[in-house]
């Protein structure tokens, strides 16, 4: 395996892509970034992580009002006045941090167009994880804190996937979820989870040879 490499994992909502990404990071003994990426990027940009989370994998929109900045000491407030900070600024801060962690050492990064951001970097393997809608709904129902019906889980998956697709398609020249946008597209329900981890890990090794 190369000294530095990155595994990016795109995923449909409820497919178990996050779980697979974590398992791959454990398998290879490398760093894992998902939600932590948002808080770390926000910290470096001097912005409240709440604004990053509110705009996580969303199409750009202009934000106005009061923004919490942290200048390295106590948080201070910045009033945007007639100007505003756009989703593009948040996306740029996130991209800068993705490039930084990718150059620091091997890691797994979930979502956030990481495959596109790192398109010119060598030793990057791009994976997309999907599953049949009923399987996704089952997973969503199992992990939801509030009770959901099967149809509610399907609706939530459809809405979330639309947001992720719009975000990905807006910022990249590829198509979210389409197999030709990734090196490997895999149905997480196609085999037992431990076998799935082995299969994807073997693919990563072969791709990086």
Major sheet description: 5 strands, parallel
Q: How much helix is in the residues? A: 40-55%
Q: What number of structural domains do the residues give?
A: 1
Structural class: alpha/beta
Per CATH, the superfamily is P-loop containing nucleotide triphosphate hydrolases
Specify the oligomeric state.
single chain
User: Can you give the mean pLDDT?
Assistant: 84
Please give the order of strands in the largest beta sheet.
Answer: 2-7-1-8-9
Apparent shape: globular
First-residue to last-residue Cα separation: 7 Å
Calculate Rg over CA atoms: 18 Å
pLDDT < 50 stretches: 62-85
What's the architecture in CATH terms? 3-Layer(aba) Sandwich
DSSP strand tally? 9
Q: What attributes characterize this protein structure?
A:
209 residues; alpha/beta; Rossmann fold; five-stranded parallel sheet; two-stranded antiparallel ribbon; 48% helix; globular
Word description of this protein:
- Helix content is 48%, strand content 18%.
- It is α/β, with parallel strands linked by helices and 209 residues long.
- Helix 1 (17-28) packs across helix 8, helix 2 crosses helix 4 (87-104) and helix 6 crosses helix 7.
- The N and C termini lie close together (7 Å).
Q: Topology, pairings included?
A:
Layout: E1 6-11, H1 17-28, E2 31-33, H2 35-45, H3 49-54, E3 62-63, E4 66-70, E5 75-79, E6 85-86, H4 87-104, E7 107-110, H5 114-117, E8 124-130, H6 133-143, H7 150-171, E9 184-187, H8 193-208
Helix pairs in contact: 1-8, 2-4, 6-7
């Amino acid at each position: 395996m190369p000294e530095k490499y990155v595994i990016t994992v795109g995923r449909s909502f409820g497919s178990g892509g996050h779980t697979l990404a974590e398992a791959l990071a454990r398998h290879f003994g490398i760093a894992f970034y998902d939600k932590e990426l948002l808080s770390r990027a926000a910290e470096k940009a001097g912005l409240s992580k709440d604004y990053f989370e509110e705009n996580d994998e969303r199409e750009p929109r202009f934000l106005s009002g009061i923004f919490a900045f942290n200048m390295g000491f106590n948080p201070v407030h910045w009033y945007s006045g007639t100007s505003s900070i756009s989703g593009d600024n948040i996306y740029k801060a996130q991209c800068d941090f993705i490039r930084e962690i990718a150059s620091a050492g091997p890691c797994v990064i979930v979502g956030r167009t990481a495959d596109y951001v790192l398109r010119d970097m060598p030793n990057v393997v791009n994976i997309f994880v999907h599953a049949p809608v009923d399987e996704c709904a089952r997973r969503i129902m199992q992990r939801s804190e509030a009770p959901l019906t099967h149809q509610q889980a399907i609706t939530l998956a459809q809405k979330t996937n639309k947001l992720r697709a719009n975000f990905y398609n807006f910022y990249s020249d590829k198509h979210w979820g389409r197999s030709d946008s990734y090196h490997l597209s895999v149905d997480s329900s196609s085999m037992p989870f431990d076998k799935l981890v082995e299969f994807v890990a073997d693919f990563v090794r072969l791709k990086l040879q």
